[in-house]
Amino acid sequence: MSTRNLSILSIIVILVVWELSTSILNLIPALFLPSPSRIVLDFFRTMITPFAGATFIEHLLTSLYLVVSAFIIAVITGVTLGIFMGWYETFDRIVYPIFQLIRPIPPLAWIPLAIVWFGIGVASKVFVIWLSAFVPSLINAYIGIKMTDRTLIEAARVYGAKDRDLLWHVSIPSGLPLILTGIRLSLSNAWMTIVAAELLAASAGLGYMMQIARRTLEPSIIALGMLAIGILGTLMTRGLFILEKKLCPWREQQTS
Amino acid sequence: MKVKYASFISIGGFILLWWLISASGMISPRFLPSPGSVIISLYGMIWEPFASVTLQGHIWASIQRFFVAFVVATGIAIPLGAWMGWNEKVNAVVDPVFEVLRFIPPIAWVPFAILWFRLGLKSECFIIAIGIFVPSLVNSRAGIRFVDPVLIQAAKTLGAKGRDILWHVSIPWSLPIIVGGVRIGMGLGWMCLVAAEMISRPTLKGSAGLGAMIEVARVTLASQYIIGGMLVIGVLGFAMDIGANYFEKKLGRWREA
């Protein structure tokens, strides 16, 4: 059997066994593991009737809005600061050690402090998501600029390029693939952080929906939230990956 | 200016600025405690318990959880990943499920973990283990799959069988890649630990763990303990990463030659 067929068979077998054991044969209590059909039904149900104060789409849009806005701020600030640090030696020496000091603290560990500072609202979530998404953008932009091939710089100098030209026409384009990879990492960090932030403190959003579903013992809604987060995250990351290939077709092919 | 001095000046300047702002009284110590009060609170915690546990008690609780999750996660992920990298058919069977699950952030498993294992040690270990699991599996599979074909050909020429190739060529060759994956997983797992402890612990009395500690400090508005806890989390995570990095470099040294 070809590997492709084997994969398809694997998915079908798992779905069938899962459905049978959870709904028809009742081997596993529904409280423990919801059946696939139940998840699909709940998907349609929550589209129309609100769950935990909002419909599924509203929860999804709340999360999406937060992720996207914090992500955009993070990319702009992270990439700019990274380029500055990579380009200006003095600036680098001042900022880099502080950055290195703060970096080992996982972004999620900032949540309590963020709540103390900004309260339980949009601001504290945007802050924590920004913090988690900011780091990969900054690091990759920094490395991208720092690792500009010396030969390219020398060559441009020979042709009379000024410092500013070097930055815009040599260093930034040559660092672009790395910068874009950093942006992609930022996005997946942002998705991970929003879930944690919403589980801890929120009044709407996918994480909040899952937390309420846990209390009301509706595991199918938890599973729905998990799938939505997984699928949205994957789609957005894939989108960025395609953009990356379009913007720098010369970049090396990535494995895995 | 030498690079070394520059770092000292920069970090010194940062702490000085922090201290000046908090000493000026512009911001209430509830929001920004002074660097001194953070250190004193941490130091005091060695004898005086905070959130009913001493500092070393919180650290020990977190490390225990992390260790259990680490053993379970790598114990499954590395052999499974290596098997998937070695055998295309195994990969074809497991990969579709793995692909769906890997994109769900570990933290999103928290509600299910609590439903399945109830609040406490097991559910936290489960979340941490998922964080460690994914990168460990991805790298183990990639490491075994992308072994330099020249080496395999050479071994075959010398009469090595499949099993010999796996044990004497593929595994030693991919070890640094596997350790690299485990290292990424440890970073992720450490973050998951903090989040899992924050979300599940503080509802229990006498909750131990660094994540629980900073969450309790938030509820009681003792921000010097929040920052102190963050520092300890950062230092431990950093130390772990240095250890893993050392291991990775050591295992990969022969390849550079």
TrEMBL record, chain B:
Classification via Pfam families: BPD_transp_1
Record field: transmembrane: 7-27, 39-59, 66-86, 106-134, 173-196, 225-247
BP-aspect Gene Ontology terms: transmembrane transport
Stretches assigned to the ABC transmembrane type-1 domain: 59-244
UniProt entry keywords in alphabetical sequence: Cell membrane, Membrane, Transmembrane, Transmembrane helix, Transport
Subcellular location: Cell membrane
GO CC, alphabetical: plasma membrane
Membrane topology: Multi-pass membrane protein
Main location: membrane
Family statement drawn from the similarity comment of this UniProt entry: Belongs to the binding-protein-dependent transport system permease family.
Protein name: ABC transmembrane type-1 domain-containing protein
Species annotation: candidate division WOR-1 bacterium DG_54_3
